[in-house]
From TrEMBL:
Its cofactor is [4Fe-4S] cluster. This is Light-independent protochlorophyllide reductase subunit B. Pathway: Porphyrin-containing compound metabolism; bacteriochlorophyll biosynthesis (light-independent). Component of the dark-operative protochlorophyllide reductase (DPOR) that uses Mg-ATP and reduced ferredoxin to reduce ring D of protochlorophyllide (Pchlide) to form chlorophyllide a (Chlide). This reaction is light-independent. The NB-protein (BchN-BchB) is the catalytic component of the complex. Binds 1 [4Fe-4S] cluster per heterodimer. The cluster is bound at the heterodimer interface by residues from both subunits. Protochlorophyllide reductase is composed of three subunits; BchL, BchN and BchB. Forms a heterotetramer of two BchB and two BchN subunits. Its EC number is 1.3.7.7. The gene is bchB. It comes from Methylorubrum populi (strain ATCC BAA-705 / NCIMB 13946 / BJ001).
Length: 530
């Protein structure tokens, strides 16, 4: 465990909370100290849920550590069952309570409650949030799915599937689910169970009735789907339908398992992304340098959309999901780059600076990093903030999701160009802030206004600083920018400004120059332009 200002994932019990909060009739008793109830805010404030998560905390205090904390836990479990009457319960410990070693599973079994009680062993000092969600869902499926069910031949009935993976606090999971249901309905495929989101423990007992499983979010559902494949002989589809191409592959894979014709659905692609990619306007985006970082599911999918469907050039790809590092590294190798596998945001910031992209697609942390570096950014993955849980329908999956992605990826570049043009012409004598709008003409009011304006005194030019070589520790520091050089840098288009700044600072650092002047900026431009 590492102490840090930002973190991409919480401890594994947060992942367990995401599963419990997504389901109905399930209650989570968490052995945790007073203060760990902060996790409720993730759902009520950020996701804006109307009710708090179904979690009971023991909230023991420091003074309780000298007494029997096990009794506190047993009392909390009994009280939670009496009050909420759940169909099933899960029990576990937070990272702090894990150190006490009270064995929540054994204590809960000793109560002999009349409902299933599933213990969770979530090593908080080795694993993170997504692993915790995956392990919780896997344990629930193993405990509740029951015995294999006999399924009649597919030709005699409507094929059916389970949709696995969506959780509470998931990035666009609610909206993605709506799009996937629409696609399945058009294919004539019934949905047997959606889990964890909206499912009850009783629903999990019916998982074996479906013909196959759809894994929308492998970080959460792959382990459970592999168990169902082995136990119930249910094949799985793990094609993530993000982007037009991936949605087509998803439809083809699902149709093959269901033994239905995908042609009518494939013939009606309700997305504007392919049209734009073929239009003359898309030439503005062709070859734009993009850096992608997020959870493995979204990072891989968005990288493919950016390169294969919008013509971007991938200069950086990474994930904090270490369990999927192999897949991300393989995708990065296809583009001739090295993947960034880390959960340290400072490493990600350094990678972004080194790659000098024109667009960053990442999490809310990359949003802050890109803002500081002056690079356009769009959020495509958790962790996310309240603005990434819009009240409107805004999926990432399916053909409508491709439309949303088109806006998400294109608009930052288009708006960045507009901002650059406004900044470039801000000091123009005709278009500066004090000038009247050009469509009003050159009437008398404009002349009067011009006469009344008193010209400002020109700024004092900074005293020239000789380019003296600097030695020692100061030689590795970034030289400061002179005002006129900084002003000239802002005239460079935003999508290459970061690279120009990095190259100039490197030029000055290698020559041990104490100040970056206008002349040094031009010298660096000439040097790297050879």
């Amino acid at each position: 465990m590492q102490l840090t200002v930002w973190t991409y994932e919480g401890p594994p019990h947060i992942g367990a909370m995401r599963v419990a909060t997504a389901m109905e009739g399930l209650h989570y008793v968490l052995h945790a100290p007073q203060g760990d109830t902060y996790a409720d805010l993730l759902f009520t404030m950020i996701e804006r849920r109307a009710k708090r998560p179904p979690v009971t905390y023991t909230t023991f205090q420091a003074q309780d550590l000298g007494r029997d904390t096990a009794a506190i836990f047993k009392d909390a479990v009994a009280a939670a069952y009496t009050r909420f009457q759940p169909q099933a319960m899960i029990v576990g410990a937070s990272c702090t309570a894990e150190l006490i070693q009270d064995d929540p599973g054994g204590l809960a079994r000793a109560l002999d409650l009349p409902v299933p009680v599933i213990p969770l062993e979530l090593p908080a000092y080795q694993k993170k949030e997504n692993w915790g969600a995956s392990e919780t869902f896997y344990r629930l499926v193993r405990a509740l799915a029951g015995a294999p069910a006999e399924r009649p031949p597919q030709g005699t009935r409507r094929p059916s599937c389970n949709i696995l993976g969506p959780t509470a606090l998931g990035f666009r999971h609610r909206d993605d689910l709506i799009e996937i249901r629409r696609l399945l309905d058009r294919l004539g495929i019934a949905v047997n169970v959606v889990a964890p989101l909206g499912a009850s423990p009783a629903d999990l007992t019916r998982l074996g009735e479906a013909d196959f499983n759809l894994v929308l979010y492998p970080e959460v559902a792959r382990s459970a789907a592999l168990y169902l494949e082995k136990t119930f002989r249910q094949p799985l589809v793990d094609v993530v339908p993000i982007g037009v191409g991936a949605t087509r592959r998803f439809i083809e894979a699902v149709a093959a398992l269901a033994e239905v014709d995908p042609a009518p659905v494939l013939a009606d692609v309700a997305s504007r992304l392919p049209w734009y990619s073929r239009s003359v306007d898309s030439t503005y985006l062709t070859g734009k340098r993009v850096f992608v970082f997020g959870d493995a599911t979204h990072a891989l999918a968005i990288a493919r959309v950016a390169t294969q469907e919008l013509g971007f050039r991938l200069v950086g790809l990474g994930t904090y999901s270490r369990e999927f590092a192999r897949e991300v590294r393989a995708e990065a190798a296809l583009h001739g780059i090295e993947a960034t596998i880390t959960d340290d945001y400072l490493d990600v910031e350094a990678a972004i600076q080194a790659a000098a992209p024109e667009l960053v697609l990442g999490t809310q942390m990359e949003r802050h990093i890109a803002k500081r570096l002056g690079i356009p950014c769009a959020v495509i993955s958790a962790p996310i903030h309240v603005q990434d849980f819009p009240a409107r329908h805004s999926p990432q999956m399916g053909f409508e999701g491709a439309n949303v992605l088109f806006d998400t990826l294109v608009h930052p570049l288009m708006m960045g160009l507009e901002e650059h043009l406004l900044g470039m012409f801000r000091d123009d004598p005709e278009f500066h802030d004090g000038a009247a709008p050009s469509h009003l003409g050159h009437g008398p009011n404009r002349k009067a206004d011009a006469l009344e304006r008193v010209p400002e005194a020109p700024p004092l030019a900074p005293a020239p600083v000789p380019a003296i070589n600097v030695q020692g520790a100061d030689a590795v520091r970034t030289a400061p920018w002179a005002p006129e050089a900084e002003k000239e840098l802002k005239k460079i288009p935003f999508f290459v400004r970061g690279k120009a700044r990095a190259n100039t600072e490197r030029f000055a650092r290698e020559r041990h120059l104490p100040l970056i002047t206008l002349e040094i900026l031009y010298d660096a431009k000439a040097h790297f332009g050879r």
